[in-house]
């Protein structure tokens, strides 16, 4: 589920917010699996956190562009 920046920049602000919610929920599930010892790939947590950061960055860019013009 690797997110490309080009794909993210094509999304609207509400779609980005929804994507962020989905990723946060996925991260919660991964952390829960880690705590119970059922997580097969611990690197998935890092990947999900980085995807959340990408979405937040693009969302911030969109909001700044809206305020400027």
Automatic annotation (TrEMBL):
<comment type="similarity">
    <text>Belongs to the universal ribosomal protein uL29 family.</text>
</comment>
<dbReference type="GO" id="GO:0006412">
    <property type="term" value="P:translation"/>
</dbReference>
<keyword id="KW-0687">Ribonucleoprotein</keyword>
<dbReference type="Pfam" id="PF00831">
    <property type="entry name" value="Ribosomal_L29"/>
</dbReference>
<dbReference type="GO" id="GO:0003735">
    <property type="term" value="F:structural constituent of ribosome"/>
</dbReference>
<protein>
    <recommendedName>
        <fullName>Large ribosomal subunit protein uL29</fullName>
    </recommendedName>
</protein>
<dbReference type="InterPro" id="IPR018254">
    <property type="entry name" value="Ribosomal_uL29_CS"/>
</dbReference>
<dbReference type="InterPro" id="IPR050063">
    <property type="entry name" value="Ribosomal_protein_uL29"/>
</dbReference>
<dbReference type="GO" id="GO:0022625">
    <property type="term" value="C:cytosolic large ribosomal subunit"/>
</dbReference>
<dbReference type="InterPro" id="IPR001854">
    <property type="entry name" value="Ribosomal_uL29"/>
</dbReference>
<dbReference type="InterPro" id="IPR036049">
    <property type="entry name" value="Ribosomal_uL29_sf"/>
</dbReference>
<keyword id="KW-0689">Ribosomal protein</keyword>
């Amino acid at each position: 589920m690797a997110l490309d920046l080009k794909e993210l920049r094509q999304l609207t602000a509400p779609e980005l917010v929804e994507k962020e919610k989905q990723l946060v929920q996925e991260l919660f599930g991964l952390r829960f699996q880690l705590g119970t010892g059922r997580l097969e790939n611990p690197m998935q947590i890092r990947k999900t956190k980085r995807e959340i950061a990408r979405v937040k960055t693009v969302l911030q860019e969109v909001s700044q562009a809206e305020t400027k013009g």
